[in-house]
Amino acid sequence: MISRRLLLGSAAGLATPLYARAQSRGVELTVQYAIPELFRQLMDEVATGFTRKNPDIRITFRSAEQGYEEILQRNLRDAVTRSLPDVAFHGLNRQRTLLERDIPVDLRPLMQDDAETTAQGYSETLLSLGQVGGKQTGIGFALSTPVLYYNLGLLRRAGGDPEKLPSSWDEVNAMARAIHGSGEGTTGLFFDWTITGNWPWQALLFSHGGRMMNEDETAVAFNDAPGRSAVRVLRSMVDEGRMPDMRAPTMMNEFIAGRLGIIMQSTAQLGRFNREVAGRFPLRTGRFPIPGPNPRLPAGGNVAMMFTKDPAKQQAAWRFIKYATGPEGATMMVNHTGYMPATTIPAEREELLGRFYRENPNHLTAIRQQDVITGWYAFPGQNALKITDVLNDGIQSVVSKRAEADAALDRMAAEVQALLPRRRG
């Protein structure tokens, strides 16, 4: 691997023989990501900044996939046809499925052999989110937690206090009920349960102290007492908070237009909300209620993963990943989105994000929730994507009132259990 002196040597003409050969002919890296409405402009900016500093490496983006499930399906097919991208940005919860098929390269040896790694300022807590099966399968590029967004204009009109935002789901429902109908076409609450990978359901479950499966992963555990509390809270949003059964894009547009008082969404949407609300009403983020014993919240977002097995390309791919997830790439990412980075350096430096965070306190809500952060759970086995759909269908039945909360949870548990790998012996 290359030392710090040799890594810096691209400008001074110093490199290992392997890298010198790669540099002499140039290296092209193929990169793929998902959710273009959030990441296209950002990725273009990251690639431009990287190639300015690394003119010997050319970044070619593959067509972006619409979501994390779609990019996973695409790359699983690519593995069969041996046409994987060199670098891909996958949802945190999909690393396990990729590792089970031996697709990602373990980044730990590259990190250990690079003296510049420590200068990237990676947070050990956030770095651990990219560790699966004893390997560093990815490094966090854009990380998030679930938060509540408030239209303070509607909240004040309904008698709420912007300095005392709701701290429990009962208080959220009461505030939503007061907002609902306070003006023509006004809705109080929308909890976006449709976010990829059952992330919102996990947030409700984990915040009540629950877990998706038991310790040895032989049986589902989300139907235990914490899960029952969580699914009843979801139903209470419909019954008490007057939450409609509507599509998420519709409700996000309602919030932007000023007709929705409270929306639960990822911090990923903060950049979009800031741009599109554009001062139409005062916007504030609030913590996700955490009612249970030992409450946790799943980290969302994506990690940069290396797929190329070519040694020369691996050196170039590591440089790109290090740039994208390091201080410069992280600064671009935060400025474009509401995500938080895996590196602590930008927030500590005035010229990067120090001033930004002071002037944009809404971005601090996710960072302040790091005290309860945990992994985004991924089910084992070949049916992981199918299980995601089963859980989505069950949650939809609760929101639409086609099923009672406990009955829906029982059905979800039975169907998921049947899809899990069978243990031998």
Concise structural overview:
With 425 residues, the protein is of the alpha/beta class.
Q: What does this protein look like?
A:
β4 and β5 (135-136) form a beta hairpin. The strands form four sheets. The chain has a five-stranded mixed sheet with strand order 2-1-3-12-6. Helices cover 47% and strands 14% of the residues. The chain has 425 residues and is α/β, with parallel strands linked by helices. It folds into two domains: 4-144 and 299-374, Periplasmic binding protein-like II (D-Maltodextrin-Binding Protein, domain 2); 146-298 and 379-419, D-Maltodextrin-Binding Protein, domain 2, CATH 3.40.190. The protein has 21 helices and 13 strands.
- What CATH calls the topology of the largest domain is D-Maltodextrin-Binding Protein, domain 2
Globally, the shape reads: globular
Strand numbers in spatial order across the main sheet: 2-1-3-12-6
Query: Which residue ranges are poorly predicted, with pLDDT under 50 across at least 5 consecutive positions?
Result: 1-24
| Tally of distinct domains | 2
CATH-derived architecture of the largest domain: 3-Layer(aba) Sandwich
Helix content class? 40-55%
The computed structural class is alpha/beta
CATH superfamily of the largest domain: Periplasmic binding protein-like II
The CATH class name of the largest domain reads Alpha Beta
| Number of DSSP-assigned strands | 13
Q: Beta-sheet strand percentage?
A: 5-15%
Distance between the termini: 43 Å
Note the total helix count.
21
Compute the CA-based radius of gyration: 22 Å
Mean pLDDT: 92
